[in-house]
Design brief:
- There is one protein chain.
- By secondary structure, this protein is mainly β.
- It has a single domain, classed as Distorted Sandwich (Beta-galactosidase, Chain A, domain 5), CATH 2.70.98.10.
- Strands 5, 11, 12, 14, 15, 18, 21 and 22 form an eight-stranded antiparallel sheet that branches.
- A hairpin with a 2-residue loop joins strand 1 and strand 2.
- It starts with 8 loop residues before the first strand and ends with a strand.
């Protein structure tokens, strides 16, 4: 179906933040979080072309790319035989908002029913601002129609910070791996399929290493995955004076995919204009297959099961 607009938007407001919740993708956009010192941080990246009517009405472009940015849930994640839509039917279609009562001023709930040929029957998610905190909390429920194994993930895209800012990744993980094949031909610099222990020393295809923070200042497209993550990561913005903290259940998402997009894609709608990076909790892994990167593994669902998970995004001063 052609989507020229992102559908209905609901506003979310609480003591320490505001956000828009969109019907398209069930996504959160324009999240503003207020630190104790009064500074307002917008942690999520938004594409510069969101207001471009020509792109919004171009149904040759996947709907979520026409309005790229923010945060949403991917069921299933990536390209999957279980669903022809990249990141799942819920990514490129509009969700339905549930009725809100007076007591739900700081929360929004949405649902989407999947087509009958998909193994997923329904998704439901809630977005809630945390009173007294610069944090937003999410729940996600997945109702399975049939027994299946699905790669599942979350897709927050963070803003890259000030020009030249050297961001840091803090947290506990076992090891990391770069994308198993060249992520973007002619652009990507990371050595494919290389293992590493330190995000400050990512292996390059020509030898040597580069830090995560330095890559964000380049024009490139990259991806790497951290394994054995304990359910929390902190992205530190040293010059900006804040950090973004993501928390989730480690048993639900044992890995985290990092996708760096800093002007390296020049096709429509990108045109070298997007700058952001995904920090994407994930239950799956990428492997080399037929010359490309394919996703493998995931969570096993039983027919009729309603599986739920929760996670949060917050900011804090440093």
């Amino acid at each position: 179906m052609s989507i020229a607009l992102p559908g209905t938007k609901h506003s979310l407001s609480w003591s320490h933040g505001t956000a828009e919740v969109w019907a398209l993708s069930g996504a959160v956009h324009r999240l503003d979080l207020t630190l104790p010192d009064g500074r307002v941080v917008r942690p999520l990246a938004e594409a510069a072309w969101q207001g471009d009517g020509a792109i919004a009405g171009d149904d040759t472009i996947p709907a979520h790319l026409r309005f790229l940015g923010g945060e949403w849930a991917c069921v299933p994640f990536g390209k999957s035989g279980a669903d022809p839509v990249v990141h799942g039917f819920g990514t490129d279609n509009c969700w339905t908002f549930e009725a809100r009562g007076e007591e739900d001023g700081d929360a929004v709930a949405l649902v989407i029913d999947y087509p009958e040929d998909r193994p997923v029957e329904r998704l439901r998610r809630t977005v809630r601002g945390v009173p007294g905190a610069a944090r937003v909390e999410f729940t996600l429920e997945v109702t399975a129609r049939r027994d299946c194994v699905l790669p599942i993930g979350l897709h927050p895209i963070l803003a890259p910070g000030l020009a030249g800012e050297q961001l840091l990744i803090e947290g506990v993980w076992a090891y990391g791996e770069t994308f198993p094949v060249t992520f973007e031909r002619g652009v990507s610099r990371l050595a494919p399929g290389a293992r590493f222990d330190d995000a400050g020393a990512l292996p390059l295809v020509d030898g040597g290493t580069v830090s995560f923070g330095s890559l964000l200042s380049e024009t490139t497209e990259e991806a790497f995955q951290l394994f054995g993550v304990d359910g929390a990561l902190r992205i530190v913005y040293p010059q900006s004076g804040h950090a973004v903290r993501l928390k989730w259940r480690a048993e639900d998402y044992p890995t985290c995919l990092f996708w760096i997009s800093t002007g390296g894609r020049t096709s429509k709608p990108w045109n070298g204009r997007f700058r952001g990076f995904g920090v994407e909790p994930l239950n799956a892994r990428f492997e080399a297959r037929d010359g490309a990167g394919a996703i493998a593994g995931g969570r096993a669902f039983r027919a009729g099961e309603v599986w739920s998970t929760s996670y949060s995004i917050g900011v804090e001063a440093i």
